[in-house]
Amino acid sequence: MRNSVMSSLERTWERVLERVAERVTSEDLTQLIRPLRPVALTPTELRLEAPNKLSLLCVTDNYLGTLRDAISSVAGPRQVLIDLPVRDQGELFPDSARRRPDRRLRAVHATLNPKYTFANFVVGASNQFAHAASKAVATQPGDHYNPLFIYGGVGLGKTHLVNAIGHQILERQTLVRIAYLSSDAFMNDLIASLRRDRMSDFKERFRRVDVLILDDVQLLAGRERTQEEFFHTFNTLYDHRRQIVLTSGAYASLTRRQISIDFAREILQMVLKPAQPTVSFDDITRAVCDHFSLRPADLRSKRRSRNVALPRQVAMYLCRRLLSASFPHIGELFERDHSTVIHATTVTERRIKEDAAFQATVERLERTIRGQ
Question: What is the pLDDT of residues 157-173, one digit of tens each?
């Protein structure tokens, strides 16, 4: 029975590959798509395994929509879930480990209230800005209004809006990892992890999400250990441009000032700066070349010596960060393929975490490019 199921799955996958071949280059089909291994086909999803992290990142960033369209044309509408295989675990984790990504995604869906969407949110004069900001976040998480902080009294729609944000993000990006919970739930999870000596699991769970939505953040007041852990989680997510959404039903106890239009205007005048000039590819290459004493042509050359390769990787990373450009587009700018750009950004991000001096150099370059 199992052999017949697998052969049916493989036949379906071959038909999917035929559809994909109509939309991608033969090189990408051979190097990126064919190495994927079909694992399961259910009425709602096609599950695939990627051979390595680089393949997983490249396919999810560039070809997830193509795969989704292909499976839909072959077997009807389905989500496409891609993960890495579980290796060298024998029978210690028989089926649970292989299903872990699936359970994680379903748990995300389960926390969101299906009744709270943008479609049934009533927009009025008092909440139209909060609604517009929430829509912007849901459309481009991590790019606009990050973090997004929504303040309001009880029953005014804060929870409705943040649930709607989560639903719309999941509609647009099926593989996104969202953590939605209340501050009390965050604290209880922290306490349980401390008691069980499982803090590494706690940190992994919350610091690897793509979107963190924390309801009633005012409840963290007075809970120093929880505040400390949230502080580190917040910084990790913010540094990696992951979207953070917070709601609160209380204003700051330090100043005892009620939040009003005048107070908001006063704060905005303190934090808003004149519009910064648009950053361009030339701005990035010029700054990198000036710092490393190179010419722009060196970055596009075939030279692989360290004094050229490192600045090239930094420039690719900064293009990804400051231009929000796709891997293929950055590859075209540097006359490289997108897999080279993915490798460059991954290596640079890892070195930033491990080397404080290198991190300071990259941050200084970014400030120079931004004109700060």
Answer: 888 998 999 888 888 77
